[in-house]
Amino acid sequence: MKQHFISSFFLCLILLIAGCRQGIKSQQPARVNIEPVKIADYGKALFSLDPMNVKPGLDSLSAQYKFFIGENPDTLNVIQIRDFIRDPFNRSLAEKYNRVYPDLYFLEEDLTEMFGMVQAQYPDFKPPAVYAYISGLLYESPVQYLDSVLLIGMDMFLGWDSDQYRAAGIPVYMTRRAEKANIMPECSRQIAISFLPDEIEPASLLDYMMLYGKVLYAMDLFLPSTPDSLKTGYSKSQLEWCRDHEASVWKLFIDQELLFKKDAFINNRFIQDGPFTSGLPEGAPAMLGRWIGWQIVRSYMKKNDGTSLSELFSISDSQQILSDSGYKPKK
After folding, report:
1. In the chain, how many H helices and how many E strands?
2. What is the full DSSP assignment across 188-223?
3. Given its phi and psi angles, is residue 29 left (phi above 0), alpha (psi -120 to 50 degrees) or beta?
4. Cα dihedral across residues 306, 309, 314, 316: positive or negative
5. For residues 158 and 93, is the Cβ–Cβ distance under 8 A?
6. In whole angstroms, how far apart are CA 128 and each of 34, 59, 70, 188?
7. Mean of the pLDDT values across residues 285-308?
8. Taking CA 177 as the corner, what is the angle to CA 171 and CA 179, rounded to the nearest 5 degrees?
9. Residue 9: what pLDDT?
């Protein structure tokens, strides 16, 4: 990655401090200039149709939104879409979306910036077509990346206190992330996951730690100015807990010999999302294995300065990364 030298001492100092805070190097991130992103807003287009006369409207949208509608929607498809946009709950989501996001210019600019960062790491990466849509609260997959298409369910980013989330019974630890600031981290996460080798088959806790650690490290490069809390989905207090207890969590993994166990319960306990980690003191967030894995990968990349992101992703031996990382959390 090419170094950019900055003459101002104070600016260098600021960049150095910021780099240390995020756990990555203080060099200017690599970025390729790309064509500005234009988001196709299927959500606004769909809910602007006359719900009593859907077919002509869909015909007018089918060329631009073929991905959702198809070229010539059949009767069953028309009925399904008609019922979707007539549903009072979905209409309330669309109305809230229109109020919260009158336009998506900010997101187009942010995606343009991020896609340039991705292409700097993967020159063959082609920016996908981007669609914003109303998902009907598809909270398990607020963003989906399908090679050439990026789908953003904007109804999952309406603000943590939206009435619709409470009505749907979505867990608070998920709705807390339903904010504007979480859109880009989730987009970058899905793109980073797409670069993992197809043949990867994690089994042990360490395997999963390295898998998610790689993804989070990629997010460091794709979103260099984004706080760690947004990359992890933690609150600020949860992030502070991780930093304060990093050594004790690592000691737990070592003392109980968890790293190389291939146990679904252990993997779920330390890898899966949730409100907290069971069996640990109050304040311990979920996904602690991902957090520790991230710190190991950061340490590895710091010690192996010439390793590219694609080379990192190609390393299948989790123990090799751990051994070569020199990882040792401060007590």
Report:
1. 17, 4
2. HHHHHHHTS-TT----SHHHHHHHHHHHHHHHHHHS
3. beta
4. positive
5. yes
6. 12, 24, 18, 12
7. 97
8. 125
9. 33
Find all residues with CB under 8 Å of 222, minimum gap 6, and list them: 114, 117, 118, 121, 188, 191, 192
Instruction: Assess whether pLDDT exceeds 50 at residue 199.
Output: yes
What DSSP designation does 278 have? T
Closest CA to 71 of 79, 83, 59, 80: 59
Whether the predicted pLDDT of 113 surpasses 70: yes
Q: In the predicted model, is pLDDT for residue 108 greater than 60?
A: yes
Query: Strands (DSSP E) along 229-284, which ranges?
Result: none
CA distances (Å), origin 4, targets 26, 300, 329: 10, 23, 30
Q: What are phi and psi of 204, to 5 degrees?
A: -85, 165
pLDDT band for 70, please (50, 70, 90 cuts): confident
Residue by residue, DSSP assigns 98-158 as HHH-S--HHHHHHHHHHHHHHHHH-TT--PPEEEEE--SS-TT-SEEE-SSEEEEEGGG-S
